[in-house]
Amino acid sequence: MKNILYLIFSLVLLLPGALNAQDRDLQSMLRYSENHSLTYEEAIEFYTLLDREYPEAELKEMGMTDAGRPLHLFIISGDKTFDPAELHRKGKTILLINNGIHPGEPEGIDASAQFALDILKDSEGLK
Fold first, then answer.
1. Hey, how many other C-beta atoms are within 10 angstroms of the C-beta on 50?
2. Beta strand residue intervals within the chain, DSSP E
């Protein structure tokens, strides 16, 4: 019985850290303070992780770029509606952030990734 109580107590102490572990992992991927920007592959991995971690987020492939890579659309929706046409019909505010177009312009990529993470970490504000 004593071992079970110790285990429960340990889990209660560790639970808050475990709940934010994914956020810490995601945050560590953003290394703009080290003058490092996300590569295409890192950005897709970052948004894929956001999609997996947060039910209010979805990453979609929407065709191909002129460089022959998949073109992605990342949607954050408080009511979990991920169809752009449906969002428009509902009268939802839609903010389009388009970046990663020109080489040597990393700021938008990193700022958008941080912005998405910040919104999702405070998803109560989406409702």
1. 22
2. 57-64, 70-76
